[in-house]
Design brief:
Elements lengths: L8 H6 L1 H13 L7 H22 L18 E3 L2 E3 L1 H12 L28 H13 L6 E3 L4 E5 H5 L12 H8 L11 E5 L7
Parallel strand pairs: 4-5
Antiparallel strand pairs: 1-2, 3-4
Length: 203
């Protein structure tokens, strides 16, 4: 990863054989008898790695938009199940029903959440999810609070997955955000909420 939490695609390309080997491990991992928390960790790691692997195959790439239907990738296997990037992401979000996962899944592009600096372990998954969610929601480059205009701008991927956050409309994001905002940065319910366009550029 780069210092900005983005994949170092050049380094991944150089180590292409290792990437392919890791995909084989992910494909044939058996989850029988594995705890729910351990499975959550496994699938988050598998998804982020799969995005990196797909980007690796398209290297060099400057924007996800250069690859039509990037997320409708060719099928691949995770723990004996067949997915593409789109269906794997959807499977994780629907199966575990945890909105914090949104902030751990890499989408590519400047607007995407960062890739966690280390792989998830089955130990302390919930604490790590909360830590990453707080980091994202308190980062002004992601959640943009305009105090003069009393406006909160959220990344567009939160609009795409609004049903996963258990909110009926964008205004209801404020209580969700405040759950993870630091005390001095709580957002008033009088502020309006909107979205800013997603940037698919890689840098």
């Amino acid at each position: 990863l780069t210092k900005k939490g983005k994949p170092d695609l050049k380094e991944c390309y150089i180590r292409k054989a290792e990437v392919l080997g890791a995909r084989q491990v992910i494909a044939y991992t058996k989850l029988d008898g594995v705890t729910e928390e351990n499975q959550k960790a496994f699938f988050i790691n598998a998804y982020n790695f799969s995005v990196i692997a797909e980007l690796n195959e398209k290297f060099p790439i400057h924007s996800i938009e250069e690859v039509p239907d990037f997320f409708n990738s060719k099928p691949f296997t995770v723990a004996g199940l067949e997915f593409n990037l789109k269906t794997l992401r959807s499977y994780i979000l629907k199966r575990f029903e945890d909105p914090r996962i949104h902030f751990c899944l890499y989408l590519g592009g400047l607007s995407s959440p960062k890739i966690p600096t280390h792989a998830f372990s089955h130990i302390g998954v919930s604490q790590e999810l909360t830590k990453i969610t707080k980091g994202f929601i308190n980062d002004s480059s992601y959640v943009k609070v305009k105090n003069r205009s009393k406006l909160v701008l959220l990344p567009e991927f939160m609009k795409w997955g609004i049903s996963d956050f258990n909110v009926k409309d964008k205004q209801e994001f404020i209580p969700f955000l405040n759950k993870y905002r630091s005390v001095e940065h709580k957002i008033s319910s009088s502020y309006s909420v909107d979205y800013y366009p997603y940037s698919w550029k890689m840098q």
